[in-house]
Amino acid sequence: MGDFSIGAKDLLFVIDVQNDFCPGGALAVPDGDAVVPVINALMPRFQHVVLTQDWHPAGHQSFASTHPGSDPFQTFAAEYGEQVLWPEHCVQGSAGAAFHPKLETVPAELILRKGFRPGIDSYSAFYENDRTTETGLAGYLRERGFARLFLTGLATDFCVAWSALDARREGFAAVLVEDACRAIDLDGSLDKARAEMAAAGVSFVTSQAI
User: Where is the Isochorismatase-like domain (predicted)?
Assistant: First the structure.
């Protein structure tokens, strides 16, 4: 068991807790809204909080509706590799793209929007899905002197996992707060993501241990 006492170099990282990823939303994660009270309870324990927000233009390449004859959850070969086709979700300015209404947002020092380039999706908060186009987050975190990220939000096996893996890739310690996340679990994606995170040195903890 590691030391999960919180200091000035630690950051609570809240990923995509938006209406479209919660029950009733366009791409609802099962039990997704259950993360909100857990995350809200964690916020006062941290000096620093960052939120991310999926922010797609209409007609985004990752939407199944952009590809006539395609269905959600199929894949297609994008220029940057295999891309899952999703239901339209988190369209810029829509109610679905807004944060869950009960999520505390006032403590956030940064709200990072991602997925706003029409031709490329962005699961990770650090890189677009081509794995080379940076969001600038790593530089922000380094300049602020942060060393460890506690990751929460939606969904465990996509945006949270990809962000955790890229945090490690960029030299940050990464801790997944398991009860503050929920997964889509598409064709075994949760087990695969957990294995990849463990192999990369991501720690796993529950909120009670923080």
Answer: 11-208
Q: What is the pLDDT of residues 18-77, one digit of tens each?
A: 999 999 999 999 999 999 999 999 999 999 999 999 999 999 999 999 999 999 999 989
Collapsing DSSP to helix, strand or coil, 63 comes out as: strand
Report how far residue 199's alpha carbon sits from residue 175's, in angstroms, rounded to the nearest whole number: 13
pLDDT digits (tens, 9 = 90+) for 85-125: 999 999 999 999 999 999 999 999 999 999 999 999 999 99
Question: Structural domain boundaries of the chain?
Answer: 10-57+87-205
CB burial class (10 A; 0-12, 13-18, 19+) of residue 107? Answer: middle
> pTM for this one?
0.95
**For domain 10-57+87-205, is the CATH number 3.40.50.850?**
yes
Point out the residues that are catalytic.
Answer: 16, 114, 159
